[in-house]
Write a structure and sequence with these properties.
The protein contains eight helices and seven strands; from the N terminus they run ααβββββαβαααβαα. It is globular, with a radius of gyration of 18 Å.
Length: 214
């Protein structure tokens, strides 16, 4: 590629990315602290890869981190609602109900979700948690690139490929020996109904009732 053509291509890419929307939603420190959820499972990283049922191509990448609290790194994602505490690309309060909701939100008749869960040391999980919380939101079409860049900063994960392609990141993460499962659902593409059905207050009241009963 000629230098001038290459320069034009780079500038076009910059302008396109600059024009992409990012998740500008912010929450107060008090809201984030109130939403924090500590999961009693082992420290882990769970990579989500959303795959088209029509073409077999990757469509989205995200990362669930279980450290001193459990959060989802959902880069340029659309899993957002008033009852969901998200700041930038980090979704807080990832309780079992929220994890289930998050996974089902992405699985539908046109896409399925590959779930790769990998136990890690507490130090690695905590570093991943700190990294995403301080990262800031990213433009659309950079979900795999930003996630791979984050993973590559973690001790032992330097071999993760730097890529814009969710399936290439999936293959790279697979080399570390995670457990793998897939979720297929066959409802329509309008996933707003999944969010509308989520009642955070009702879930909190149910959890409090069960805790009191025990």
């Amino acid at each position: 590629m000629a230098p001038v053509v290459r320069l034009i291509a780079v500038l076009m890419a910059v302008f396109v990315l600059a024009g992409c929307e990012v998740n500008k939603e912010t929450r107060t420190a008090e809201e984030i602290q109130a939403a924090a959820y500590q999961h009693d499972g082992p420290p882990s990283l769970t990579l989500y890869t959303m795959v088209s049922n029509d073409t077999g191509k990757g469509a989205h990448t995200s990362l669930l981190i279980n450290g001193s609290q459990r959060v989802a790194w959902d880069p340029a994602g659309s899993f957002r609602a008033e009852s969901i505490i998200a700041s930038g690309d980090v979704v807080y309060g990832m309780t079992p109900q929220m994890v289930d909701l998050y996974t089902r939100f992405h699985a539908r008749e046109t896409y399925h979700v590959i779930i790769q869960e990998l136990p890690v040391s507490a130090a690695v999980a905590e570093q991943a948690l700190r990294t995403v919380m301080s990262h800031g939101a990213v433009p659309q079409a950079t979900c795999a690139a930003s996630t791979s860049a984050i993973l590559r900063t973690l001790p032992g994960f330097e071999g993760i490929p730097s890529t814009y392609y969710p399936l290439k990141l999936y293959e790279g993460f697979k080399q570390y020996g995670p457990t793998e499962s897939k979720l297929f659902e066959y409802d329509g593409d309008d996933k707003s109904k999944v969010l509308e059905a989520y009642d955070a207050q009702r879930v909190a009241e149910t959890r409090a009732t069960r805790k009191a009963a025990n």
